[in-house]
Design a protein that fits this description.
By secondary structure, the chain is an alpha+beta fold. It folds into three domains: 8-86, no CATH class; 99-294, no CATH class; 299-452. Helix content is 23%, strand content 25%. It contains nine helices and 23 strands. It has helices spanning 11-15, 222-236, 278-294, 328-345, 370-374, 385-396, 407-417, 425-435, 442-452; strands spanning 28-30, 36-38, 41-42, 45-50, 53-58, 63-64, 85-86, 100-110, 126-129, 133-138, 144-149, 165-167, 173-183, 186-191, 201-206, 211-216, 245-249, 256-260, 265-269, 325-327, 354-357, 360-363, 382-384. The strands form seven sheets. Strands 10, 11, 13, 14, 15, 17, 18 and 19 form an eight-stranded mixed sheet that branches. Strand 4 and strand 5 form a beta hairpin. Helix 3 (278-294) crosses helix 4 (328-345) and helix 8 (425-435) runs antiparallel to helix 9. Bound molecules: zinc ion (ZN). Residues 283, 287, 334, 337 line the site of zinc ion.
C-alpha cells in the first residue's frame, strides 16, 4: 500500500495549535493489487509529535477513495492505510497541538454468592476485566470515536481494552458498555428480561488520563455478573468452536436451557440467584456448548425418579441433583455442565479441586462412586452426575507429570460417541474414546470410568 501523498501546503493549518484536526487530504492511494485510486479523502487525521518530527496518524476507516472517479476500492483493501504517514521532519513554524494516546479498559462489577470455596479463579468479588464486551466511545464534544468489542484477552489482545485513540481532549468522555460480548469468535448476549431480548447498557462519563484508563460500570447487576462469568468461561475454553452464540435471559423462574422455536436454538434462563452463581452460569453454558458441538445428535433426559436417598430432592419432578439416580444420558449431560464449570474455575493440575453446587462443596478428586454404593438397583444403564463429574475431572486432570487429554479431546470423544442412548452413555462414550485420536485415550477412559463408578 502506498500511503496518500500529502501536499506540504496542507500542513500549514494542521501545525497551528488549537485548530480542528479534521481536514481533507487529496492525493492518490494504491491498493495491494496495484490499482490506483485518485483523490483519496481522509476525514480524520490525528496530529502527533514524536522523536522524529511530526507524524500524522490516520484512521483507516476514515479513508475512502473518491467514488466520483468511477472506481471504488473496497474498505478491506484499504485497511492497510492505518499506518503512520510521516511528513517531513523538524516541523518548523508554530507549535503543534498536543495529542495523547488513550485507551479505555472496561471493568465489569460482579457479585457471586458461590465464591472462595477453594476454587482457583476469581476468589473475590468486585471488578473483573470486561473481556470482549461491546463498547461505544464518545469524546469531550460528544463526537463518536469508536464502537466495537474490546480485546478478549486471547493472544496479544488486551483484556477488555479498546484500541488506542489519539486526542487532545481528555475531559468528559462518555463510555457506553452493552451487555453483550465476543470472545474467541463466539457471541454472548445477556438480556435483562426473561422473555424479551433487551440488552442492558451502562453509561459513564469520565475524565481520561494519557495511557490506559480502567473504566468500571457504575454498579453491579445480574447482567454485569453474568456477562463477566460468561466471557471468562469462553476465554478459558470455548470448546474450539467459533461463531456460536450464548444467549442468557436473566430474571427467569428457574435455571435451565430451553428450546426456542423461533430460532431452533436453545437459550439459557437464569434466576436472579442463578445469575450470580459462578457454577450455575457456566453449567448452563456447558449444555449449550454440547448442543453447539453435537447439533441434532444432542440428547438429554433427566426425567427418571428414584427412591431416597437417590431421588431428586431439590429439583422437582423433571430435575436432577448431585445425588439423584438418572438415566445414564441425563447423568452424563448434567455432569458435563458441572465439569465445564469446574474446568473454568479451577486449576487443571491441582489435586484439591472443588465445586460449589447449591451451597454444597463437592470434592472433585476423591470420593467413592455414589450410585453403586447408595442407590437401589438396577444401576446398569443409570448414572449419577457426581460420579460422572468426577470421571470427567479425573479423565483430563492430574499432577503436572501426568500426560492428560485436553478439553477438546473430551469433546471429540463425546462427538464420536453421540447420539448417546438413554441407558448407554457409558458404552457410547467408551466407543467414542476408541474412535477419537486413534484410541490413545481409551485405556485412561476405562481406568477413570471404573474409578468413578460410571462403567
Ligand atoms: Zn443442567
Amino acid at each position: 500500500m502506498v500511503p496518500p501523498v500529502l501536499e506540504p501546503g496542507m500542513l500549514a493549518n494542521a501545525k497551528r495549535p488549537g485548530l480542528p484536526f479534521q481536514f481533507l487530504v487529496t492525493g492518490h492511494i494504491q491498493d495491494s493489487a496495484g490499482r490506483k485510486f485518485e483523490s483519496a479523502q481522509a476525514a480524520s487525521l490525528f496530529f502527533h509529535r514524536d522523536e522524529r518530527g511530526f507524524t500524522v496518524f490516520q484512521r483507516a476507516s476514515a479513508i475512502e477513495p473518491n467514488s466520483s472517479r468511477g472506481t471504488k476500492a473496497s474498505p478491506a483493501s484499504l485497511e492497510h492505510t492505518s499506518s503512520q504517514l510521516t511528513i517531513g521532519g523538524g516541523g518548523g513554524g508554530g507549535t503543534p497541538p498536543l495529542y495523547w494516546k488513550v485507551k479505555i479498559c472496561v471493568l465489569l462489577k460482579v457479585n457471586f454468592s458461590d465464591i472462595n470455596y477453594r476454587e482457583d479463579n476469581w476468589l473475590s468479588n468486585g471488578e473483573k476485566p470486561g473481556r470482549g464486551v461491546y463498547v461505544k466511545v464518545f469524546n469531550t464534544t460528544y463526537s463518536y470515536v469508536w464502537d466495537g468489542y474490546t480485546g478478549d484477552g486471547v493472544g496479544t489482545d488486551e483484556d477488555g481494552c479498546t484500541p488506542v485513540f489519539y486526542t487532545h481532549l481528555l475531559t468528559n468522555w462518555t463510555i457506553f458498555v452493552e451487555s453483550r460480548a465476543k470472545v474467541r469468535g463466539n457471541e454472548i448476549f445477556v438480556y435483562h428480561h426473561p422473555e424479551n431480548e433487551w440488552l442492558t447498557t451502562w453509561a459513564r462519563t469520565v475524565d481520561l488520563v494519557p495511557g490506559p484508563n480502567p473504566v468500571s460500570v457504575l454498579w453491579e447487576s445480574k447482567e454485569s455478573t453474568t456477562l463477566a462469568a460468561a466471557t471468562f468461561a469462553l476465554y478459558q475454553d470455548a470448546g474450539s468452536m467459533t461463531n456460536k452464540s450464548y444467549e442468557f435471559h436473566t430474571g427467569a423462574l428457574s435455571n435451565q436451557n430451553d428450546w426456542d422455536p423461533n430460532t431452533s436454538e436453545t437459550k439459557i434462563y437464569l434466576t436472579d440467584e442463578g445469575s450470580r452463581r459462578k457454577t450455575t452460569i457456566v453449567h448452563e453454558m456447558g449444555h449449550r456448548l454440547l448442543r453447539h458441538r453435537l447439533g441434532l445428535n444432542y440428547r438429554n433426559d433427566t426425567s427418571y425418579n428414584a427412591w431416597p436417598p437417590c431421588d431428586t430432592v431439590d429439583k422437582g419432578p423433571l430435575g436432577h441433583s448431585m445425588r439423584s439416580k438418572e438415566y445414564s444420558v441425563g447423568a452424563f449431560n448434567e455432569a458435563f455442565g458441572y465439569f465445564y464449570a469446574a474446568y473454568v474455575w479451577n486449576n487443571h493440575h491441582e489435586t484439591n479441586a472443588k465445586l460449589m453446587q447449591l451451597g454444597e462443596v463437592i470434592d472433585l478428586e476423591t470420593g467413592a462412586p455414589y450410585l453403586k454404593n447408595n442407590c437401589t438397583g438396577p444401576n446398569s444403564g443409570y448414572g449419577n452426575q457426581m460420579d460422572w463429574m468426577r470421571f470427567f475431572w479425573r479423565f483430563i486432570t492430574n499432577s503436572y507429570s501426568d500426560v492428560t487429554p485436553w478439553f477438546s479431546d473430551v469433546l471429540g470423544i463425546i462427538s464420536l460417541g453421540s447420539p448417546v442412548g438413554q441407558f448407554t452413555a457409558s458404552d457410547d462414550l467408551e466407543s467414542g474414546a476408541n474412535l477419537w485420536a486413534g484410541g490413545i485415550w481409551l485405556a485412561r477412559f476405562r481406568g477413570k470410568a471404573t474409578l468413578s463408578g460410571i462403567d
